[in-house]
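Usage example:
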Amino acid sequence: SDDLVSLQAFSGTKGLSNNASVRFLGETMQAIYSENIFGRIFNGSGVPIDNGPGLTQEPKVAINGPTVNPVSRVLASRMIRTNIPMIDVFNCLVESQKIPIFSVAGEPFNKFLGRIGVQADADVVIFAGLGLIFDDYYSFKKMFEDAGVMSRTVMYVNLASDPVVERLMVPDLALAVAEKLAVEEGKRVLVLMTDMTAYADAMKEIGIAMEHIPSNRGYMGDLYSQLARRYEKACDFRGAGSVTILSVTTMPGNDVTHPVPDNTGYITEGQFYLHNGVIDPFGSLSRLKQHVIGKQTREDHSQIMNTMIRYYSEGVEAEQKQAMAFDLSEFDHKLLKFSQLFKQQFMRLDISMALEPALDACWVLLAECFDKEEVIIKQ
Amino acid sequence: KDVGDAITPLVKNEVVFICPQTIPGTKQEKLKAEVLRVRGRRADVQVYEDTTGVAIGDLVEQSGEMLSVELGPGLLSQVYDGLQNPLHRLEVMNGRFLLRGEVAAALDRNAKWAFVAKGRVKDQLKPGDVLGTVQEGRFTHKIMVPFLLRGTLTIEWIQEGTFPVETVIARLRDAKGRLHEVSMVQRWPVRVPLPVNLIKEGSSERKFPTQPIITTLRLIDTFFPIAKGGTGCIPGPFGAGKTVLQNLISRYSDVDIVIVVACGERAGEVVETITEFPKLQDPHTGGTLMDRTIIICNTSSMPVAAREASIYTGVTLGEYYRQMGYEVLLIADSTSRWAQAMRETSGRLEEIPGEEAFPAYLESSIRNLYERAGVIRTNDNSEGSLTLIGTVSPAGGNFEEPVTQGTLNTVKTFLGLTYERAYKRFYPAVDPLQSWSRYTEQLAPWFLENMGSSWLDGVAHINQLLIRGDEISRMMQVTGEEGVSQADFVIEQKSTLVDMVYLQQDAFDDVDVSTDINRQKHSFSLLVSIVDTEMVF
Ligand SMILES: Nc1ncnc2c1ncn2[C@@H]1O[C@H](COP(=O)(O)OP(=O)(O)O)[C@@H](O)[C@H]1O
Ligand SMILES: [Mg+2]
Ligand SMILES: [Mg+2]
Ligand SMILES: [Mg+2]
Ligand SMILES: [Mg+2]
Ligand SMILES: [Mg+2]
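Running the assembly step on the lines above writes:
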């Protein structure tokens, strides 16, 4: 057994015989890297699948490259505007952040992710689709094309019907190209990945096929390290650009303690919870927001954010009181009105609003619902 | 891998180097690895780096040494990876990426240190005894007889002056007549507790910890104290505030030296520490926090095997400064990532897995690690301590998993963070009803002397109030406020008051962030008097 090696066939092993021959290429997997990749769509082998011109002669970059030296990173300091108030006002996306959208099957997370891809003020958007069903793939592509942003976008797509081994390559292709663009071109790159649970499941499938010992619900003991290797590519490079990662992680059975969301939560810098068609303002957390709020954004940002969340939370309590048919005070009624309007004006997923008008709208809403003396804001 | 020739023995835990084939004319890479298992002439080794391109037939070089660190002046303020490569120097050498096989000396070979001899020719010394000192920033750094030597040694020659670390500063003759040249730098194998031989030979002695570390966090110092030279753990689900809590402890604790081991968590958090510490004043001595800190940084995307080693690297450096009589605090974030690194290696060795695929020796490894904390008294009558505090990241936030359980069976302070408290933004989200300190009795004399005779009773009294308050509040969730008696309602309100004004402490508020022990004494007695006040309606 000393001279046996294990191989993973990208296209699967259906129909392979034991006298098939193997040729070693003497190189590791590479991704095409040139200005001609913009607007193009690649599969998990890094081959274009959009019927565009061939790119075989273009320069390449090795995937799975070395880790950045931690001392070459700089502190996160710049916001990425998405024009989605639940993000920009309440949990800012910050350059170099890695943050997942925790959601469940059936929720409009892909539509939401696509909108961020269209609206985010990044130089480059790199999309990584993992085990996408065709209709979702089509919708992403159409959304980017219709919005006219394809020229700043590169897509790597592994469809649900594509080989599982290729699925494992997609994040590495996307991140290698993203890193290169940030380091060599100084670009502010936003990487969108969906669905990382499908990616983790692909790792599980391969691990079990290799007869490795699983640690938890079939996932291998290195799930954390494998995910972290990818997510940690998010980085603000000193003297160069940055890579930011926004991903989707669906929670099987809506269970956040499932190994995939659990390990992801330990790795990432906060999370956005998407349930019942809205971003939950309580469970969602951007751990990097304090680096930009009030520093890069308007002075009143921090106070208004805290005040709105406090009243919304009291509003939700008032709703519960109402549901249990308890007596409601006059102030409770004000809170009820506030939380209703808050949902309509800020939480709906289709709302687009720049940060400053959104902050102004917060003041207007507070004024509409409460008397001046009732609004307690720390000076 | 097959290592060694027919003559050189294969030694478990020896460091070897794998030399992959290179294109002629390019530099030979050498990948550091550790022998984990020896079977006859075969050994299994774990490579500390990416193994791409390693092939059968590659040359393996034996180092003759177990995984070791360099000890000497210049360790403070450094940022090292898990194998003690200085990250700033690697950046100067190789740019922004960590290239495989690239190493740098832990201590700067060009820096010069003014050595003042304490020993004289003909002095008889034991390993660990002081030969002389150098000034390392605001610390007096003792240059000690190498810990690896044995028996009594006689100084044959010693010189004073300003030298680089590798200059020979003394020659010592051992009992067998062999001569040893000693410089300001010595090495020690990280997996072996540093004072083992010193204790065996009677030149160092372990002492029972009797003083608390003052963290200035009210909840810890008042309710769940940790002894200097003691151990503690901080388990909690993601986002509950483990890292923030550890950072606070590392900033404000009344210790001389802090070692931060960033073990398998985010690089971004280390960047925060590296950026902020040089700007922050040490509240106790005035210099910057960085002057007294060593950072061991083996974050989650750095090699996993080196992550396993990183904690031992940190502990060894801590033991070294303790040996000089300093009070050292080591914080490790997170020990679960260290345990997972062990699990990955164990899986590769195809060892029979225990619970959740962790190796069967998980618990004993945890114990051996925390046992390296402690108070040490040395030959020159100085006393130093090493306090060890680790975070634990339990899968699914469930404390029943093996790493949390193994840790709870070992450490003497448990600060359990809960999702519920973090969700309510009750920071630090330590659950006072779940957490415990087994130091209360041991430290009682200190509290008696420093906090007054009523302190411990007060703490016990408030603890009871919290327990009772929790019972009543759970009852109220079912029955509503009206469903409990007025007396119970008052108890519940008092217990909430304790929580709000004393247990909770805002890390981002300039004043609240740190409460010194005198202020704790006063505000706690005020709190007790409020709680003891009869409420009249
Ligand atoms: N003591 C505290 N005071 C104020 N905020 C805190 C405190 N502890 C934690 N937080 C908040 O919780 C977030 C997550 O804390 P962190 O220590 O990174 O969690 P963990 O390490 O347990 O995943 C922080 O970014 C901060 O916003
Ligand atoms: Mg895991
Ligand atoms: Mg930058
Ligand atoms: Mg943490
Ligand atoms: Mg943090
Ligand atoms: Mg001392």
